[in-house]
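2024-03-11 09:14:02 DEBUG pipeline.ingest accepted 1 chain
2024-03-11 09:14:02 DEBUG pipeline.ingest length=732
2024-03-11 09:14:03 DEBUG pipeline.predict start
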Amino acid sequence: MLLEGYPGVYIQEVPSGIRTITGASTAVLAIAGHFPRGPVDRPVRVTSWGDVERHFGGIDRRYEAAYALQEFFLQGGTQAWVARIAFQQPSIVLTTTETAMTVRARNVGTAGDNIEVRISHTNGGNFNLLVRDGNSGAFTEYADLSTDPLSHRFAGLIVNADVAAGGSPLVLLENVAHLPAANSTSINLAGGGASAASSNTLPSVPLPALTIQALAGATNSTTVAATDNGNGTFNLVFNNPAPSATVANDLVNLSLNPTSPAYVVGRVAATGFAAVVEGQHPLRIPATAAARSMSGGGAPVPSASVALPRAVGGGNSITVTAVNPGSWGNGLRIGIMPTLSGGFDMSVAEYRGTERVRGELFRNLNVIPNDPNNVVTVIARQSELVRVSGTMILPRASSTAAVDIENLAPDALYALTGGADGTLPGDPAWAASAGAAFLGNETNRTGLFTFNHLDPDYFTLMAIPEAPYMADGGNGVYAAAGAYCRDQLAFLLVDHPIAADSVTGITAWPIAQTLGTDLARGSALCFPKVIKSDPLGGERTLSASGSIAGLMARTDAQRGVWKAPAGLDASLAGVRPSVPMTDRQQAQLNKRGLNVIRVKPFAGSVNWGARTLAGADALASEWKYVPVRRTALMIERTLKDSLPWVVFEPNDESLWAQIRLNIGAFMQSLFVQGAFQGSSPREAYLVKCDGETTSQQDVNSGVVNILVGFAPLKPAEFVVVRLTQLAGRLAA
């Protein structure tokens, strides 16, 4: 302390050496999987199911991870990091056309043969119908018609209305099924007579007929040609690679009949390198087409986009792209209206079918570089739906109508297209190729390594609910995830394949051997799968990791991480086990370190086990129990995050004393909460940092060693009651 020389009182603050240590969070879930939307390979923190719906799209039957995450929050979870996985295998979509609808004259007679029809498309994906009688005169336009029967703009509803209500006096629309192809020349009705009304069919836009996905051996160079035989059968020809002669001969006269030996799904699968994707669209006979190559393999999953035309002249101006990949972006619509200042207003609307579910509005934008209202800058900073790029030229207005941008008709809006979801669980190529996408690359921070983005944040639980559906049952991904969790001081929740969802199946599944004792001690499996009511209808069987993670979070908050997340209090609301269990059956699993979900009278579904995958009786592991391992991980994480202040401090008794003081205070706080065995601190925990733990050689090497021990609470698995009879006393 510097004395300035004048008499008086000098104040000096002396460090107390106290640095408060706060316990680490114990129930922060990291979940990786497919979702309808959201950033790819970039984790997002969510704290409620509403956050999930906003960032990742909510429930969709194609995505198991979304159901697991919903269960996490329903069972008591409060915080999760979500990493969306998305990839695509090489594939090709063969197309065809069908009858979009039939246009029929309202009245019988040959006069109907003079009726002309034209079709144009709107920006928003609907169509305009133009009708006139004769080869001259003006067309009557019926604008923004939809093929969706539930839409208020349904073509059959508008055109077929009474003439007095605005319906067409000339034609009726029948069998409206698809969007009709646009045409610049008129289509005339024909076939009118004394008792027949003139009519004609309108061809559809190209429709997906077959989506063929590459399996092992096929690449972007694989080509497919199709021939429609005209008799309800068709041929396919593959090259690069070409199938064997026997298989190639079986790819002729293919059928769409599932009971036929020539069913296209089975015949293509027989090639071994390609498969037909079912469920995305109805299977149709493809139109005859020359050989085309597969595409998409190795490329990022595409985001929907639209290039807006220039306000003046030809060509495009800015390009608007959905903020992340997925078919969800195909429901986005963009409105543009010029302003008096020379800029423009821009609206962004998200539609699901005909329902507008979300919107954004940006006013007074421009394309001036470095301007605060530059469209690229403003959209990047404020929009949650789109991004803007491309040539900085003013875009053309969506409509010439003199209305505010908020009042633009839906058909005037520009529609984004081209968004895709990539290869999804259930697709033929997914099981064999998903492992590589989930394993990812540490350098690029993809797959599991995307959670490296979290630093200095962290997670303490991990679930990968889609892993069991991989070709190897998830063994490879779980082994990598176990090693990653070990390094991150986190606990892994393992799910089992559907083939192992029986007592005999789960005992035969070698997940503990796959992980080895080093990784198994930081992992747990809960059997069986759970059945819950599906918000989209019916029931759904899903992996239990999401439910168990939520239960762990709830137990941690109510009792502490040292309390086993099992017992009658460990209820799982809204779910039931897919396999009913008896006590004797559970005994087989318990001694193998497998936990079980049971239904108990009055308590409902409960978690009835608390062992790690290293908890088999034969291993006699000190990390047999989940709460013991998770308590140790919590202490390790807390001390790792709380002791950086020690680095570069003088390595002497003064430092050691401060370390003992602060860690001792933290361990004492846990003891007071009931985290350890023992009736006194001496029996419950140990903190040692002195000349015995840190030798002079350690000091010379810049090392300080700290020994922390604790007496863990272990759950009472087996409650033994001994009952005896006391003989009545004889009278004296």
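2024-03-11 09:14:41 DEBUG pipeline.report The chain has a mean pLDDT of 93.
2024-03-11 09:14:41 DEBUG pipeline.predict end
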